[in-house]
Design a protein that fits this description.
It is a single chain. This protein is an alpha/beta fold and 266 residues long. The chain has one domain (10-265): Vaccinia Virus protein VP39 (Rossmann fold, 3-Layer(aba) Sandwich). It has helices at residues 10-28, 50-56, 69-81, 119-127, 153-168, 179-185, 205-221, 224-229, 235-247, and strands at residues 38-42, 61-66, 87-91, 104-110, 130-141, 147-149, 189-201, 254-265. Strands 1, 2, 3, 4, 5, 6, 7 and 8 form an 8-stranded mixed sheet that branches. Helix 1 (10-28) crosses helix 7 and helix 5 (153-168) crosses helix 9 (235-247). The longest helix has 19 residues, at 10-28.
């Protein structure tokens, strides 16, 4: 991974935690592993998804890896705070996993492939660690699936800046829609993809705060300096666009986004 486009700030860590807390049921309710299973969580980051995974499958053992020692330390604290004992952490590179062949029963990745310049190569490396018949679960967003009201050209431009900024560092913010061909072309079998829709209006105040404001708009705001430095937008348009995105959180506003969850078998 050339660069994590959202950065490693305290605010970004808070955003990741808000996102995981808000979306736990939507994304993870159907991810449960049998007792005794060995599960590799590849790219665990600050452990935002780790807690939900480990809590859902208390008798499975998770090995959660990340390339950043700082993120791993924060993930460790988060797991300890949740009083979970079925997770071990290890610094490792997805493109060079330090595990023998066929040693895991399952592999899990969430919001990882979008940041990789060669996601298919990462899937190939990870596949070697999985036992025959084991499963791969991948969850990714797709910023092109965003719809909102009231409509705003400037608001859409700020979202487009996020997509373009991620592409500049080798990522793909539209990868959610590509999971089926990506996995099938990488040799996975029985690939099944399910869209997970987040629809937000004033009747869902928890999602207004937890998703629209604290997850999505916070993510967009985090790339302002990059967008301006790259010449993707001017400052006035950016500020107007962000104001218009916040406008969707008012009583007559709506916000819509789709995540994609794919499961494949080795």
């Amino acid at each position: 991974m050339k660069q994590y486009v959202h950065g490693y700030s305290k605010r970004e860590n808070t955003r990741l935690f808000d996102q995981a807390t808000t979306l736990t049921n939507l994304l993870h309710h159907d991810t449960r592993y049998p007792a005794g299973s060995r599960v590799l969580e590849a790219g665990c980051g600050v452990g935002a998804q780790t807690v939900a995974l480990a809590a859902n499958s208390p008798q499975a053992h998770f090995t959660s890896i990340d390339i950043s020692p700082i993120s791993l330390a924060q993930a460790q604290l988060r797991v300890e705070k949740a009083h979970l004992t079925n997770v071990s952490f290890q610094q490792a590179d997805i493109f060079d996993p330090p595990f023998p062949a066929d040693c895991f029963d399952h592999i899990f990745l969430c919001f990882v492939l979008e940041h990789l310049p060669e996601p298919e190569r990462a899937l190939a490396y990870l596949r070697t660690c999985l036992k025959p018949g084991g499963t791969l679960t991948v969850i990714e967003g797709d910023h092109g699936s965003t719809f909102f009201y009231p409509e705003s050209v400037a608001g859409q431009q700020t979202i487009d800046c996020l997509v373009q900024a991620q592409a500049q560092v080798g990522g793909n913010a539209l990868i959610g829609r590509q999971l089926f061909p990506l996995l099938t072309q990488a040799g996975w079998h029985q690939v099944a993809v399910s869209p997970r829709v987040v629809y937000v209006d004033a009747g869902r105040p928890d999602l207004v705060e937890g998703f629209t404001k604290n997850t999505f708009i916070a993510m967009v705001e985090g790339v302002k300096e990059q967008a301006l430095a790259l010449g993707l937008i001017d400052s006035a348009t950016w500020d107007q666009g962000v104001r218009d995105l916040y406008r969707t959180t008012e009583p007559d506003g709506i916000f819509y986004y789709t995540f994609f969850k794919a499961v494949g078998v080795k």
